């Protein structure tokens, strides 16, 4: 964990393999981690660096982990083609959802009503309480990441064909697509106000996109050319 102002290291937590995902609880007291050890861990940031709870169940490396349902549950997805729901107090698995392709990313909507899951060439949307599927849209590429707009009118996604896609959430129709990255897109997220979305790619760049192109927004200025990834990040970006 790093101090956002000074850049100094505040705390560290040792794992035996690559950590793929981390997520703070709402009160920032707990940190959940998911790694290639196939384990989920919860750390109490006010105590020692030892995990207070360890979750066993996934049979392959973990892709994504998040607190949700007001921190009453934890949701995770992994290379074993499952999404699992956990009790953060006991570490017990509560529910398991199986997919035909690896679920590569999770997002919980800001009002915590919808869980967005990217898997294969689909983006599916699930009721966060009942865990029933409410919508699914097919995407013209293997999709790695997706983000639902705060008003639930649209979602954006990206994947292996280097493009960013925008879809109508209700009809599932493609609104538009853009190609700016030079590598597969691994993460996309809307800004809290929904006016922008950010994408991170294997090309080492982080890019900002305007939700409504041409709309006046702060100091936003449209440009004709997309810059070269040279001299920017030298490693792929997998989370934002």
Supply the key terms.
single chain; 240 residues; mainly beta; Thrombin, subunit H; Methylamine Dehydrogenase, Chain H; four-stranded antiparallel beta sheet; 19 strands; globular
Overview of the structural elements:
The chain is globular and about 50 Å long. A 4-stranded antiparallel β-sheet has the order 1-2-3-4, with no helix packed on it. It has a 4-stranded antiparallel β-sheet with strand order 5-6-7-8, with no helix packed on it. A 4-stranded antiparallel β-sheet has the order 9-10-11-12, with no helix packed on it. The chain has no helices and 19 strands. Belongs to the WD repeat STRAP family.
Class per helix and strand makeup: mainly beta
Unreliable residue runs = none
Cα-to-Cα separation, first versus last residue: 15 Å
Task: Return the CATH topology of the largest domain.
Answer: Methylamine Dehydrogenase, Chain H
> What is the CATH H-level superfamily of the largest domain?
YVTN repeat-like/Quinoprotein amine dehydrogenase
Percent of residues in helices: under 10%
| Strand composition percent | over 45%
Global geometry: globular
Backbone CA Rg: 18 Å
Number of domains as seen in the coordinates = 2
Largest sheet: 4 strands, antiparallel
Strands in their spatial order, largest beta sheet? 1-2-3-4
Please work out how many helical segments DSSP would assign: 0
GO molecular function: kinase activity; RNA binding
WD repeats: 12-53, 55-96, 178-210
Pfam family, one: WD40
Organism: Aphis craccivora
């Amino acid at each position: 964990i790093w101090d956002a102002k000074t850049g100094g290291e505040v705390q560290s937590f040792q794992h035996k393999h690559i950590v793929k995902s981390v997520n703070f609880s709402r009160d920032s007291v707990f940190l959940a981690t998911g790694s290639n050890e196939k384990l989920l861990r919860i750390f109490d940031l006010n105590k020692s660096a030892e995990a207070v709870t360890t979750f066993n169940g996934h049979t392959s490396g973990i892709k994504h982990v998040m607190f949700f349902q007001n921190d009453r549950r934890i949701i995770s997805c992994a290379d074993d083609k499952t999404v699992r729901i956990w009790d953060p107090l006991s570490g017990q698995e509560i529910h398991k959802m199986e997919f035909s392709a690896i679920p590569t990313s999770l997002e919980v909507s800001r009002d915590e009503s919808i869980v967005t899951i990217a898997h294969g060439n689909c983006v599916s949307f699930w009721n966060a309480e009942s865990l029933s599927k409410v919508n699914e849209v097919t995407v013209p590429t293997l999709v790695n990441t997706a983000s639902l707009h705060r008003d639930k009118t649209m979602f954006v996604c990206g994947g292996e064909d280097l493009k960013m896609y925008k879809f109508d959430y209700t009809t599932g129709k493609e609104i538009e697509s853009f190609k700016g990255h030079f590598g597969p897109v691994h993460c996309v997220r809307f800004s809290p106000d929904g006016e922008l979305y950010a994408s991170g790619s294997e090309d080492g760049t982080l890019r900002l996109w305007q939700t409504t192109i041409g709309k006046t927004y702060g100091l936003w200025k449209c440009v004709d050319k997309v810059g070269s990834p040279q001299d920017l990040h030298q490693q792929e970006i997998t989370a934002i």
